Amino acid sequence: MQHNVIEKNLGIMGLFICIVISFGGMIEIIPLFFDNDVQRPISGLKPLTALELSGRDVYIKEGCHVCHTQMIRSLSSDVMRYGNHSIAGEFVYEHPFLWGSKRTGPDLARVGKKYSDGWHRAHFQNPRLLVPASKMPAYKWLSSNLLDENIIDKKMIALKKIGVPYTNDDIKFSKENIKGKSEEDALIAYLQQLGVILKNI
Fold it and tell me: Does domain 47-198 have CATH number 2.60.120.1440?
């Protein structure tokens, strides 16, 4: 078949494009089903607590993932600035992944325990007070918005169904563990656990 015939016939051209994309996708995706390292959690990895899981929801709701990545590439500049590069086993219990693709703000994959809870509270109230060049908006309402304790157990049950190893007690006491907590409390709890397990490797 001549090249110009393919280019002039949209149906044939579309078919060849689909074949090439499908073949490339299979080469990338199929090996992952047989690679246990991709599916195995790293040593010591635990699922998020009820408060941390609620904080993750706040992180998504407020669009933090739009400006912050949670994926340290293996480039030397990334590793020097943020720490050890990210590995698949860190994200086994993450649904959905929050790797992000844009760094308007810094990567947060290893931000856990880097700053105190008080620092985070002040940063949410007035980012430029602590980081004068920050482009981040203030999130003052987080401290007064209380978490909805009526749905956390349902979220944990759903995550358990897709492989996150929550125990019955984790689910049973989830409402009690977030009762009276603010969105700010939850978001700080979520941020404070990011990357802690791999910081000293």
Answer: no
